[in-house]
Design a protein that fits this description.
Helix content is about 80%, strand content about 0%. The chain has seven helices and no strands. It has helices at about 1-40, 50-70, 80, 85-120, 135-140, 140-165, 170-180. The chain is elongated. InterPro entries: DctQ, TRAP_DctQ. The complex comprises the extracytoplasmic solute receptor protein and the two transmembrane proteins. Part of the tripartite ATP-independent periplasmic (TRAP) transport system. Its main location: membrane.
């Protein structure tokens, strides 16, 4: 159990670090767009990169915030069926849904890695004046999706342990409280 706790602590740290970068991306995007507006309004000039880099920062904001958002219960869950289930059946459904989500995220992450790798290998650049190698801003996509996949896999393991009775009493109480507050998906 200590290995699982240590791995979860590392994953939480990575999720939090990614969220910090996500938040910094919002700050940078705001600063960049503000600079563009000020330059255009006062000097009639442009950075020529504001819209391009704001788009890259938006991608970073979304993808790097996914794992932390999931862990904190920020994902939307459909309550129609889930609300009608109780006890073991609810825990079983949670494990099945989490396992399907993990498998789907594994495939998605794989294709994102292939996409970014292909752009790196072929040297694809943006069409804008900056000629940014596209793999650089795209790197946030497989990193964020990969973190979400690991976080979902950890959730699947925790849900399975709860279903099979391997979770300690305090883990069960914490899981139940979190499930009632935000739900697994």
């Amino acid at each position: 159990m200590r290995l699982a706790e240590g791995a979860d602590r590392v994953l939480r740290t990575l999720d939090t670090a990614a969220m910090a970068v996500s938040a910094l991306s919002i700050v940078a995007m705001t600063a960049l767009v503000s600079l563009e507006v000020i330059l255009r309004a006062t000097l009639g000039a442009s950075t020529l990169i504001a819209s391009e880099f704001a788009g890259y920062l938006l991608v970073s904001t979304v993808y790097l915030g996914l794992a932390w958002t999931f862990r904190c219960g920020g994902f939307i869950r459909v309550e129609v069926v889930h609300g009608a289930l109780k006890g073991t059946l609810l825990r079983l459904v949670n494990v099945v849904i989490a396992a399907i989500a993990t498998a789907t995220l594994l495939v998605y992450s794989y294709y994102l890695v292939r996409f970014v790798s292909q752009n790196m290998a072929t040297g694809v650049t943006s069409i804008y004046v900056s000629r940014t190698p596209l793999w650089i801003p795209q790197l946030a996509m497989p990193l964020g999706a990969g973190l979400l996949t690991l976080t979902m896999a950890a959730h699947t393991v925790r849900s399975a342990a709860l279903l099979l009775g391997f979770a300690a009493a305090e883990d069960k109480a914490a899981h139940f409280a979190a499930e009632q507050a935000a739900g697994p998906l």
